[in-house]
Amino acid sequence: MQTGTPSPGNMDYAGLAERIDRPIVLVGLMGVGKSTVGRRLASLIGRDFIDADEEIEDAAQMSISEIFAEFGEEYFRDGERRVIARLMEEKQGVIATGGGAFVNDETRALILDKSIAVWITADIATLVERTSRRNTRPLLKQGNPQEILTRLYNEREPFYSQAPIHVRSEDGPHMHTANRILEAIDQWL
User: Fold this and answer.
1) Which residues pair with 95 in a beta bridge?
2) Which fold, 33-188?
3) CA pair distance 114, 105, nearest whole angstrom
4) Are 100 and 148 in contact (CB under 8 A)?
5) What's the DSSP call for residue 103?
6) Cβ neighbours of residue 73 under 8 Å, at least 6 residues apart?
7) H or E element: which one contains 177?
8) pLDDT 10s digit of each residue in the chain, 189 long?
9) Nearest CA to 22 among 102, 89, 116, 153?
10) With contact defined as beta carbons under 8 Å apart, do 115 and 182 qualify?
11) Which residues, including other chains, have CB under 8 Å from residue 164's CB and lie 6 or more apart?
12) Measured between alpha carbons, how far is 59 from 34 in angstroms, rounded to an integer?
């Protein structure tokens, strides 16, 4: 496991981008910043950014909340797995996954085999604050967000921890997290 830590020098983004020969897939709980950080990360290395949740919504012509409400979580996870597999085959640059994607055995195995998996984590209070900004999180509509996020973290940590790179998202600019990810990938490669 590589943990992202700031380094004193300037990073050679172009040189690092040349060494990255597969997608970078961001995993972690909702609210850690996978989409926001992912966009910045992709721009730093000149790659495409893909949000798997947006791709799922496009494919289904429904919002994730609507998919959950109409068909349930199991149906959603199956579609999510298929969409991520397609994205991995297309070798997109940076892919942000939904919070539960990496828990699925098939999806996790695919990500670990065909990408650079990066687990972004943050403390629960930060996640509660960030997820409260939007009312589009189906799993948080089932009770107290802090209790739900704590339970999800405890359930999913054994899966997330299988990612070879772990980076903590702190308060402050998401660019700092993107830089820590690239530094950790540089060390990992």
Assistant:
1) 25, 50
2) Rossmann fold (3.40.50)
3) 14
4) no
5) G
6) 100, 138
7) helix 174-188
8) 444 433 434 678 888 998 998 999 999 998 899 999 999 999 999 999 999 999 999 988 998 889 988 998 888 888 888 999 899 888 669 999 988 899 999 999 999 999 999 999 999 988 888 877 766 565 666 778 889 899 999 999 999 999 999 999 877 788 899 999 999 999 999
9) 116
10) no
11) 1, 2, 112, 116, 117, 188
12) 20
User: Which residue type sits at 36?
Assistant: T
In the DSSP assignment, the letter for residue 162 is: T
Strand ranges across the sheet with 116-121: 2-3, 165-168, 116-121, 24-27, 94-96, 49-51
Tell me what pLDDT residue 140 has. Answer: 63
77, 48 Cβ separation under 8 angstroms: no
Distance CA(7)–CA(40), nearest Å, equals 18
Residue 49 token pair: 């950014």
Token pair recorded at residue 8 = 């004193």
What pLDDT is recorded for position 2?
A: 45
